[in-house]
């Protein structure tokens, strides 16, 4: 079973694609919107990634989800399963290829802190960034179980990096795991 996309070298057009898409995505959220962030590997300069933009959207609350779903559907997004309480997920494919993943989280959701924290850690620490890229490429080459396997095998590295950077305690390990799966 394959990943949703093949990992490719960093593409400097990824941030511009995010900035182009940001106002379109924002149009689905009205007054509930707090912020929209480019996260995931495509948001880290120099990091090889699946060419799928990860977007983190902070909202005050999940209000008017049916209206939001309609606007996002018109933009080509499909609502997936909620990843946890307060964490809605959408995906966009173009010609059968995944291009975007939207993570819509309520204010103060643990996922917000973890996604932004891991992104910022990768941006500032070249050694961790290189280790993470090496791991992702190894996991891609040995993958037989698809995305679930890939995410599960990345989880220990992400947890260890966040804990080492002081973004959680040992008792937070289970909570951090929910962010990566």
Give structural attributes.
Beta Polymerase, domain 2; 6 helices; alpha+beta; single chain; 181 residues; five-stranded mixed beta sheet; 19% strand
Structural class: alpha+beta
Taken together, the total number of domains comes to 1
How far do the termini sit from each other? 17 Å
CATH architecture: 2-Layer Sandwich
Per DSSP E runs of 2 or more residues, the count of β-strands stands at 5
Mind summarizing the main beta sheet? 5 strands, mixed
Low-confidence runs: none
- Spatial strand order of the main sheet: 1-2-5-4-3
Give the % helix: 40-55%
Tell me the name of the CATH class: Alpha Beta
InterPro entries: GrpB/CoaE (IPR007344), NT_sf (IPR043519)
Protein name: GrpB family protein
Pfam families: GrpB (PF04229)
Task: Describe this protein's structure.
- The longest helix is centred in the last third of the chain and has 19 residues, at 146-164.
- The mean pLDDT is 88.
- This protein is α+β, with helices and mostly antiparallel strands.
- It contains six helices and five strands, in the order H-E-E-H-E-E-E-H-H-H-H.
- It has a five-stranded mixed β-sheet with strand order 1-2-5-4-3, sandwiched between helices.
- The chain has one domain: Beta Polymerase, domain 2.
């Amino acid at each position: 079973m394959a990943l949703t996309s093949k990992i490719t070298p960093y593409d400097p057009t990824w941030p511009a694609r995010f900035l182009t898409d940001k106002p379109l995505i924002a149009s689905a959220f009205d007054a509930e919107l707090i912020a929209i962030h480019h996260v995931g590997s495509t948001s880290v300069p120099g990091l090889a990634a699946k060419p799928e933009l990860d977007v983190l959207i902070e909202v005050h609350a999940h209000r008017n989800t049916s209206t939001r779903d309609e606007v996002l559907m018109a933009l080509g997004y499909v609502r997936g399963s909620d990843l946890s309480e307060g964490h809605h997920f959408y995906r966009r494919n173009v010609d059968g290829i995944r291009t975007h993943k939207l993570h819509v989280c309520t204010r103060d959701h643990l996922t917000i802190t973890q996604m932004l924290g891991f992104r910022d850690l990768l941006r500032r620490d070249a050694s961790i960034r290189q280790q993470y890229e090496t791991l992702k490429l190894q996991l891609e080459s040995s993958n037989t179980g698809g995305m679930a396997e890939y995410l599960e095998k990345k989880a220990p590295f992400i947890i260890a990096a966040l804990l080492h950077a002081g973004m959680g305690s040992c008792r937070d390990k289970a909570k951090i795991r929910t962010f990566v799966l």
